[in-house]
Amino acid sequence: MAQTPLMLDKNPEQSTGGRLRKLLLSQEVILFIIMVVAIGLLATRSDRFLTQDNLLTQGRLMAEIALVALPMTFIIITGGIDLSVGAIFGLCAIMLGWTWENICLSPIAIKSRGFECAVNMPLEVSIVLAILIGILAGLVNGWFIVKIKVPPLIMTLATLALYRGMAEGISQSRSVRGYPDWFYQLGQGDLFGIPTQIWLIIVFSIISAIWLSRTTFGRSLYAIGNNETGARFSGIAVGRQKMIIYAFSGMMAGIAAWIFVSRVSTTRSDMGSGLELDVIAAVVLGGTSIFGGVGSIVGTLIGVVTIQMLKNGLSLAGVTGDATIIVVGLVLIAAVLINGFIQRRSGAR
Amino acid sequence: MSELLELAGVTKSFPGVKALQEAQFSLRAGEVHALLGENGAGKSTMIKIVSGVYRPDAGRILVNGQAVQFNNPHEAKSHGVATIYQELSLYPELTVAENIFLGHCPRTRFGLIDWAETHRRAREILESLEIHDMDVTRKVGSMTVGNRQRVEIAKALSQNAKILIMDEPTASLSEADVQRLFEIVRLLRERGVGIIYISHRMEEVFELADRVTVLRDGQYVGTRHVSDVNEAELIQMMVGRTIDQLFPKLDAEIGQPVLEVRDLVRPPLTRGVSFTLRAGEIVGMAGLVGSGRSEVAQVIFGINPPVRGEILIDGKPVHIRNPGEAMKKGIAYVPEDRGSQGLVRAMNVRQNMSLAVLRALARANFIDDKREFSLAREMIERLNIKAYSTEQIVNKLSGGNQQKIVIGKWLAAKPRVLIMDEPTRGIDVGAKAEIHRLMSTLAQQGMAILMISSELPEVLGMSDRVLVMREGRIAAEFPRAQATQEVIASAMMSQTGAAS
Amino acid sequence: MTSVTVNQSNNGSTKRSAGLVRKIVSSQEFILFVSLIALILTVGSINGNYLRPNNLISILQGNAFAAVAALGMCLVIISGNIDISVGSVVGVLAVISGNVVIAGVPFWIAWLVPIVLGALVGALIGFLVAYLRIPSIVVTLGLASIIKGGLILVTSGREISGMPAEFMISQFRPLGIPMPIYFMIVLTIIMAIIMRYTAFGRSIYAVGGNADAARLSGINDRRVVLQVFIINGIFVGIAALLFATQLQIIRATVPANFELLVITAAVVGGVSILGGVGTVVGATLAAILLNAINSSLVFVGISPYWMRAFQGILILVTVLADLLRRRRQGIGL
């Protein structure tokens, strides 16, 4: 055959040496090295940085971003994006507090001044309600994206405004405080000496990683991201998969909001503003291609940790708190740039 | 006679591949020079060098006897080289006139675009091509492929092209559009334009070209006057050996009806289609582009479910609302467009091969790596796919091998009905014969195959029965014995009123 | 297939003029204009104060600087890119120009500073996007972070005040109309002409519609993208100047959700986020409409906290209308 001579050419990907090289050049490994180097450098600047206490606290603080970054990885792998996660986060936080404070179960009504309420809304129900609202918000995104074929960027831009607006409108920008003590256990408590958030991150990360890399569902997400038409022509239920991941995104935003409210002891309608940017930055930093088709949960987690450690290490080293985000921006651009060069070098495009 | 274009000793390598080695080529004014070769023979590389997309590693290019070096497409253009690619490079959102003059619109004194002049000159160019029925203010996006191609040609002429490269210009044209294209090509030849014409269709070469150059594996094989060669000689030059039998149709036992469709309707292009497909039978479906052949296939496969009508499998009516359900009923569809519909090109051979059967390969939705690997290996062997490993990215394979992967993907689903839409379009002669042989074997094993094809020799060679579609309906049906090129072509093209 | 060609030749001049009317009526600009008028009249009938000249002027003025930035955003989106750093860049350029004029530099140089710096920032983004091939959403996401952090680092959040009166260009009122409105109108007209009548304008549509095809037809797509970001930078610079001079103080923060407002204006104005389609006039009208909705809430007695929810619904409705219209025309996505 004509192409035989070409095909028998040296095949770098097959040999173990080639595979090792490919692994070493993957975005995850590069990023991991950047992370280790950065942590090493920062450790020399402050002796409070690499202490157990500090690291555990950082784990607590990065929970919201980490949890929302998991579904965002799924979404970006399919070539979509969800800009509304921060707004869903805010809406869920508000709904948690607002339903608890304002809804009366017997008689069923919304409380007003001087209203006598026999049975108040249990906080547990409010929590479930808030997460359900998160799922619903995600489903609305997914439905319009799938059925009406609104581009994800636009759809979630619109719902970013809509959900945030609902949070502001419903709460009238008033905050809710004074939750019972048990409620703070999740956001401020420990389990076996480790902050509860870290356990949550571990559990959800493992579930997401297996879901993405080992199941038919995960494989089909990559197929959709690389070639949606091809996936559909192969019998993959593209629409259903997308609905599921946007709903998953809404659910995780709801759970993250619950944890956040529990940690900071109050709800406000501007909670989670800009969360989407932090999350997208972490996911992209973790090697997930913004064009879809490529990415992993491990990468995303490294991305989240890198950003958190950089921010924390720099502020311990004496850099003003907000200014640490400069480094985040630089690292983001640099990581993508380096990855692009390497990909082009190795000819994988 | 002076040469308009001359290539000598042109060589180009890509990492791991010598795409073109010491190739030569010449083109005279007022000549149609066909370029033939299997896929991967180096035709595309050669035209990309002539049009300035690639720079050759070695060799000389002469235009009008002057040595030139093109660093980018723009420089080639300024030397009068224009290219009409397979994927037309027009902007659907711009009008005909804007497309023709993109980048060099006539300007007013103030340097702004002079729209009146632009429209007038666009009309002038189109009229010089005997095209009188085109509105230059229309957006290209809403036009037919044939019309878009005419716009492409007009665009080339607006830049005073002396050398026109046409890369498989008829690949997606209807028969009527092909005839108009030929008229335009002849018109241009009379005007002294030199035309490099690339095509897989042998009959076009004989109808249109003056000379023909054959490439094989990146090497120059030879140049002949068309009047001095016949088809068999050219094929031998292309593949380096004779192909004794192009359409190895074997007799198969024809059994019970497997798939029946009754009065299937899905506007706009499926308007009441009925036919039956039996086990062991290969049914060819002919028709012009736009007659609704692929659309029917996609209705049956659930991509665009029918609004009316019935689909029966083994005599029982079934409801198919999406491809997943079609697969469960034993239907597989090898789509027309390999790149966008058939494959996920960034994924490797193994992942593509398992894509349609992931659930079957999985245990409780977890993918079983071992079974996936062995499926891929089995298919590579069975279909003789030239890939160095199951982990090779399919985008790097040749068209024929990519097509085999699409077929393998669907064979893995063990279908009873296989719908193949243009199964051998754009792939080389060798792979084509292999796919035809495979189809024969599958039919012998009792599979029912519906083959949609625009190549009449293929339809005639492979089919037990031929269906002809026209304007969304089955216009005619011929058993193998009665099917000839003439009756099929006339059924394809007869006017609505004249049809029975 | 054949019937298409036949229709075409029948398309006489009478049909063409009827088609033109239909084209105008169904255009995004016309719909926005009618909605704007309808909104103003409706709210005006509920509360007459809404129709006072001063209020109408403030409706025009309120989002004028956002409209200017939206013009640049239109180009960016039409070229198939996006810029989510505009808010941060506007914030930092405003602070710099304020500091420059306070340092005693002549006011007209202080006017030019944000514009020149904006162009430089745009050139940087354009270089990273076009020549180093980093997706624009990543570049501008990173840049937004860098600039926001840098702003806080340098200013420590202090406000700037005491700028000389001749610097405050937004507060000039030639013929009684605030200067930002002139900027908005004149720049919109200029951009509309560039997009319609220059080869550069056409090539932006080409690059956004089909970059590969653009390259094959001899357009230097990288240079076009670079130029688009530079022009966007200039518009962002002008927006920053208008923003800096509208109040007596310049706050060292990024205007909240500014990029969202700007992208919304561009998209509601009819620019397809998929690139290749859109006009700049629509974006300006959309910016005005967004502000008109915002201010009308107060006049009809709705809590302004609901404003963003309305904004979201507005984006959804326009996008849906646009999608349906395209589907009817058969252009598809």
Q: What labels would you give this structure?
A:
heterotrimer; B: 500 residues; alpha/beta; Rossmann fold; 3 domains; 6-stranded mixed sheet; disordered C terminus; C: 333 residues; mainly alpha; ABC transporter involved in vitamin B12 uptake, BtuC; two-stranded antiparallel sheet; 15 helices; globular; disordered N terminus
Model description:
The complex is a heterotrimer of chains A (349), B (500) and C (333). Chain A has 349 residues and is mainly alpha-helical. Chain A contains 16 helices and five strands. The longest helix of chain B is centred in the middle third of the chain and has 16 residues, at 175-190. With 333 residues, chain C is mostly helical. In chain C, strands 1-2 form a two-stranded antiparallel sheet. In chain C, α5 packs antiparallel against α14 (280-299). The chains are: A mainly alpha (349), B alpha/beta (500), C mainly alpha (333). At the A-C interface, α8, α14 and α16 of A face α8, α13 and α15 of C.
Give the helices and strands, then pairings.
The complex is a heterotrimer of chains A (349), B (500) and C (333).
Chain A: H1 4-7, H2 16-24, H3 27-45, H4 52-61, H5 63-77, H6 85-102, E1 103-106, E2 108-110, E3 119-120, H7 123-148, H8 152-171, H9 184-188, E4 190-191, E5 194-195, H10 196-214, H11 216-226, H12 228-233, H13 238-264, H14 275-285, H15 297-316, H16 325-345
Antiparallel strand pairs in A: 1-2, 1-3, 4-5
Chain B: E1 3-14, E2 17-28, E3 32-36, H1 43-50, E4 58-63, E5 66-68, H2 73-78, E6 81-84, H3 96-100, H4 115-128, H5 145-158, E7 163-167, H6 175-190, E8 194-198, H7 202-208, E9 211-216, E10 219-225, H8 231-239, E11 257-266, E12 270-278, E13 282-287, H9 293-300, E14 308-313, E15 316-318, H10 323-328, E16 331-334, H11 338-342, H12 349-354, H13 358-361, E17 362-363, E18 366-367, H14 369-382, H15 399-412, E19 417-421, H16 429-444, E20 448-452, H17 456-462, E21 465-470, E22 473-479, H18 485-493
Parallel strand pairs in B: 3-8, 3-9, 6-7, 7-8, 13-20, 13-21, 16-19, 19-20
Antiparallel strand pairs in B: 1-2, 1-4, 4-5, 9-10, 11-12, 11-14, 14-15, 17-18, 21-22
Chain C: H1 2-10, H2 13-25, H3 28-46, H4 53-62, H5 64-78, H6 86-102, H7 107-130, H8 136-155, E1 160-161, H9 179-197, H10 199-209, H11 211-216, H12 221-244, E2 249-250, H13 258-268, H14 280-299, H15 307-329
Antiparallel strand pairs in C: 1-2
Helix pairs in contact in C: 3-14, 4-14, 5-9, 5-12, 5-13, 5-14, 6-7, 6-8, 6-12, 7-8, 7-12, 9-10, 10-12, 13-14, 14-15
